[in-house]
Amino acid sequence: MGIFKNLFGSSEPKEEKLLPWQALTNISQLDEIEKRSKTKTQVIFKHSTRCGISSMVMNQFVSMYDLDANLDLYYLDLLSYREVSNEVGYKFQVMHQSPQLLIIKNGTTVAHASHGAINDIDLSRFES
Q1: For 54-71, what is each residue's pLDDT tens digit?
Q2: Three-state secondary structure string covering the chain
Q3: What per-residue confidence (pLDDT) applies to 12?
Q4: Which of 8, 24, 47, 49 is deepest in the core (most CB within 10 A)?
């Protein structure tokens, strides 16, 4: 089993570097994210815990993330919280993909990416 975990990753974000993740587990949090985005950029990382590509992208994201970034960072386990994942798409007008990163400012999605393109986004451009 260990070899598969190493190949495909685990169900939790890799914690070599402790990121300031906030768990996104409830639809009601989306209104708060929208509200907070008026003063501080909000970032949502949608992750499939059963997908090797999603785990690889997550690990790359974690290793590249600037801990000094002025962003609120949310982690959504989309398999455990499917209805939250669906509502993210409706509320922020982005078609569902996995893995997926959404950047929310002033109540709207200003950038989003999926798969390998996630790590091409320069988050510093969006800091508040």
Answers
A1: 999 999 999 999 999 999
A2: CHHHHHHHCCCCCCCCCCCCEEECCCCHHHHHHHHHCCCCCEEEEEECCCCHHHHHHHHHHHHHCCCCCCCEEEEEECCCCHHHHHHHHHHHCCCCCCCEEEEEECCEEEEEEEHHHHHHCCHHHHCC
A3: 52
A4: 47
CA 19 to mean position of chain CA atoms:
12
Q: Could you report the per-residue pLDDT of 108-126, keeping only the tens digit for each? A: 999 999 998 999 999 999 9
Name beta bridge partners: 108.
105
Task: Determine the residue type at 15.
Answer: E
Amino acid at 31: D
Are residues 100 and 94 in contact, defined by beta-carbon separation less than 8 angstroms? yes
What's residue 116's pLDDT?
86
CA 76 to chain centre: 6
Measured in whole angstroms, how far is the alpha carbon of residue 8 from the centre of its chain? 18
Ordered by where they begin, the domains of the chain are: 16-120 (3.40.30.10)
- The Cα 116–Cα 128 span in angstroms is 25
